[in-house]
């Protein structure tokens, strides 16, 4: 685990998660306690710690600032949960560190594997085909005139990611969250190190609001094209 990524994880991936509404008994910090019986039962574990409240019953988030997890790469999910757990154990703030800090390695692996196997969300009907087409061009080709790199360079031609586990899959992610994340990246301060985060910051700052909407609309349609 590369600890240099930890300071930005809470900002980039979980700063606005909803807190303290999961089922089950509550620990001293308001976070549901994790029972030993859920060690290898990801469904029971998810219910106990409240994952469905924010991420949906089957990993399909209903909220624009919270990602869908269905079909996400298990290695990426596991890495993010490990990061959140470390932040929680060193006193990091935010909902995800508080939820993850008491998870065992086995529970993290079970949750990541379970969400990765959930069926991808069915994309909505395309309303603005021209916007999706513009997004496809930016995703696949970028915009050389403005030095905008193609999204496919890192996220793969089908949105499923590359061999690098720190690159998430975009397949099945809803447009609201993709647009929200790009907006967050656009306003992140410059930092030394953290190349993946800085790459996203550079790309996001080169995109207009219309570009972001177009890329997000295209990303949401990837499952309809059987990209997996």
Automatic annotation (TrEMBL):
<dbReference type="GO" id="GO:0009055">
    <property type="term" value="F:electron transfer activity"/>
</dbReference>
<feature type="domain" description="Cytochrome c">
    <location>
        <begin position="130"/>
        <end position="223"/>
    </location>
</feature>
<feature type="binding site" description="covalent">
    <location>
        <position position="54"/>
    </location>
    <ligand>
        <name>heme c 1</name>
    </ligand>
</feature>
<feature type="binding site" description="axial binding residue">
    <location>
        <position position="155"/>
    </location>
    <ligand>
        <name>heme c 2</name>
    </ligand>
</feature>
<dbReference type="GO" id="GO:0020037">
    <property type="term" value="F:heme binding"/>
</dbReference>
<dbReference type="InterPro" id="IPR050597">
    <property type="entry name" value="Cytochrome_c_Oxidase_Subunit"/>
</dbReference>
<feature type="binding site" description="axial binding residue">
    <location>
        <position position="200"/>
    </location>
    <ligand>
        <name>heme c 2</name>
    </ligand>
</feature>
<dbReference type="GO" id="GO:0005506">
    <property type="term" value="F:iron ion binding"/>
</dbReference>
<feature type="binding site" description="covalent">
    <location>
        <position position="51"/>
    </location>
    <ligand>
        <name>heme c 1</name>
    </ligand>
</feature>
<feature type="binding site" description="covalent">
    <location>
        <position position="151"/>
    </location>
    <ligand>
        <name>heme c 2</name>
    </ligand>
</feature>
<dbReference type="GO" id="GO:0042597">
    <property type="term" value="C:periplasmic space"/>
</dbReference>
<protein>
    <submittedName>
        <fullName>Cytochrome c</fullName>
    </submittedName>
</protein>
<keyword id="KW-0249">Electron transport</keyword>
<dbReference type="InterPro" id="IPR024167">
    <property type="entry name" value="Cytochrome_c4-like"/>
</dbReference>
<dbReference type="InterPro" id="IPR009056">
    <property type="entry name" value="Cyt_c-like_dom"/>
</dbReference>
<feature type="binding site" description="covalent">
    <location>
        <position position="154"/>
    </location>
    <ligand>
        <name>heme c 2</name>
    </ligand>
</feature>
<keyword id="KW-0479">Metal-binding</keyword>
<keyword id="KW-0408">Iron</keyword>
<keyword id="KW-0813">Transport</keyword>
<keyword id="KW-0574">Periplasm</keyword>
<keyword id="KW-0349">Heme</keyword>
<dbReference type="Pfam" id="PF13442">
    <property type="entry name" value="Cytochrome_CBB3"/>
</dbReference>
<feature type="signal peptide">
    <location>
        <begin position="1"/>
        <end position="23"/>
    </location>
</feature>
<dbReference type="InterPro" id="IPR036909">
    <property type="entry name" value="Cyt_c-like_dom_sf"/>
</dbReference>
<feature type="binding site" description="axial binding residue">
    <location>
        <position position="55"/>
    </location>
    <ligand>
        <name>heme c 1</name>
    </ligand>
</feature>
<dbReference type="Pfam" id="PF00034">
    <property type="entry name" value="Cytochrom_C"/>
</dbReference>
<keyword id="KW-0732">Signal</keyword>
<feature type="binding site" description="axial binding residue">
    <location>
        <position position="96"/>
    </location>
    <ligand>
        <name>heme c 1</name>
    </ligand>
</feature>
<feature type="domain" description="Cytochrome c">
    <location>
        <begin position="38"/>
        <end position="119"/>
    </location>
</feature>
